[in-house]
Fold:
Amino acid sequence: MAAIYREENKTSQAIATYQKMIDMGGDQCPARTEEQVETYGEAKMFDQAADLARKAVNNDPKDVDLKLMLAGALVEQARTKKP
Structure:
């Protein structure tokens, strides 16, 4: 369902659906977080993407994939701040 919302540019519904999946737990939580960050990025909501990625890294600082996700989000955020 989250992917459908994402395709339809219904960002808030997609984010909420991914969050529900995260709240349910399981091995897929990092992947759902990454999908949330990507959804924010696609919606040009780079500050929210970077904030969420930063929180994910703070929760699991040893996860290299989360660190890469954060790096990408920070790059996109920086691109939008350039004059």
Observations:
- The chain has a mean pLDDT of 90.
